[in-house]
Design goal:
Helix 6 packs across helix 11. The strands form 4 sheets. Strands 5-6-2-1-8-9 form a 6-stranded mixed sheet, with helices on both faces. The chain has a two-stranded antiparallel sheet with strand order 3-4. Strands 7-10 form a two-stranded antiparallel ribbon. It folds into 2 domains: about 190 residues; about 140 residues, no CATH class. It is of the alpha+beta class. The longest helix is centred in the last third of the chain and has 35 residues. It is about 50% helix and about 20% strand.
Length: about 375
């Protein structure tokens, strides 16, 4: 095939990739804005629950404009929001189901808090609870709820999301190291069940992270160099996770989200222009610095004990690193082969252009 033919094929593939990426853009537009915090005090027969949501997430659930979600609007929608979220099912204990009672709300900055109460037959030793709202169309597939529960004589930590919508604290110790590792793998879309669901194959929720990695690979280099770049990301990610969890630095999510999208577009633009930056690991580390704030903010909200916090930070970062290495080992052989053969450069640059368009699309979307 002639160079012109390869160029036409590259353009065609780029157009197809743009359509695919932008079609999946909604699931990727999530990080700090799509984390909820649920605190449960079940040390007596009357259980108190506090669910913290970003005001934008609360507005989406209520079906109102986020700009209109002030304290008065939150009070007006509090009962409906509680029914859509934590009151969507009953709390079940060893003595039977609990009965929901009152709901109130508070607005603190950009955090909407729903405060609920349930009455049980006795102080629970075990607790089972489902969250059907995590599968709702108004909730991003990436939405996670970090849970801290105080039971008589014990404290439990857990995570629920669309893939794990049930909370079971029957004789379960605090969330273990392996669970945080797997959460890190899921965060970047590297878990197998994120690629295939009941309706067949699908794009994972961590698509923006994956596209960033692919843009780095499209810029070329050896497999060892690319793995070093991936480790640079984890280094930056670890630094901001620690800084944010220790409450040293905590920028607003409204700033972090557009910067993540912009960094994707920047790396993709370098690949389109054929610039092979020899210090891409530094760029990846900067992206990691930006990207690391979301989960750390969630951990900080739970006020974990020092031992739990260290396990969470280390395990989560290890999961991110393992997920990234897996994605690189799967995709790098093909992409590097295309990169090393000039006749395929229109194809690789076409894919990089698609990633650039997606990054800019997410950037402007998240600014809004």
């Amino acid at each position: 095939m002639t160079s012109a033919g390869h160029a036409r094929r590259g353009v065609g593939l780029a157009a197809l990739a743009v359509a695919s990426v932008l079609g999946a853009s909604r699931p990727a537009a999530a990080h700090p804005l799509d984390i909820g915090y649920l605190r449960i005090d079940a040390r007596s027969a009357e259980i108190s629950i506090v669910l913290d949501l970003h005001v934008s997430a609360a507005a989406r659930l209520a079906g109102v404009d986020p700009a209109a979600m002030d304290a008065a609007a939150l009070r007006h929608h509090a009962e409906a929001l509680a029914d859509q979220t934590f009151r969507g099912s009953q709390i079940i204990t060893e003595a039977g189901p609990c009965r929901w009672t009152t709901v109130s709300s508070e607005l603190d900055g950009r955090t909407a808090s729903l405060v609920g109460h349930a009455v049980c037959l006795a102080a629970p030793r075990t607790l089972r609870w489902r969250f059907p709202f995590l599968a709702a169309s108004r909730i991003s597939p990436t939405f996670q709820v970090l849970v801290k529960a105080q039971l008589p004589g014990a404290e439990r930590v857990a995570i629920v999301d669309q893939l794990r919508p049930s909370l079971e604290l029957t004789g379960v110790a605090a969330l273990g190291f392996p669970s945080f590792v797997w959460t890190g793998v899921e965060h970047i879309g590297a878990a197998p069940d994120q690629w295939h669901g009941p309706d067949g194959w699908k794009l994972p929720a961590g698509l923006d992270h994956i596209l960033f990695l692919l843009a780095l690979v499209l810029a070329g280099g050896s497999l060892l160099q690319i793995l070093g770049i991936v480790t640079g990301f984890t280094l930056g990610h670890s630094i901001t996770l620690a800084l944010s969890a220790l409450d040293i630095v905590r920028p607003p999510a409204g700033v972090i989200e557009p910067l993540i999208a912009l960094s994707i577009a920047f790396v993709a633009a370098q690949a389109v222009l054929g610039k092979r930056e020899h210090h891409r690991w530094k760029l990846a580390a900067c992206f990691g610095l930006i990207h690391g704030f979301g989960f750390a903010t969630a951990l900080n909200q739970l006020n974990l004990a020092t031992g739990q916090l260290v396990a969470a930070l280390f395990g989560y970062n290890l999961g991110v690193e393992l997920g990234q290495v897996t994605i690189v080992l799967i995709t790098a052989p093909l992409l590097l082969y295309l990169y090393r053969h000039p006749r395929f450069h229109p194809v690789t640059r076409g894919f990089a252009a698609a990633i650039f368009v997606a990054g800019m699309y997410w950037f402007f979307e998240r600014l809004g």
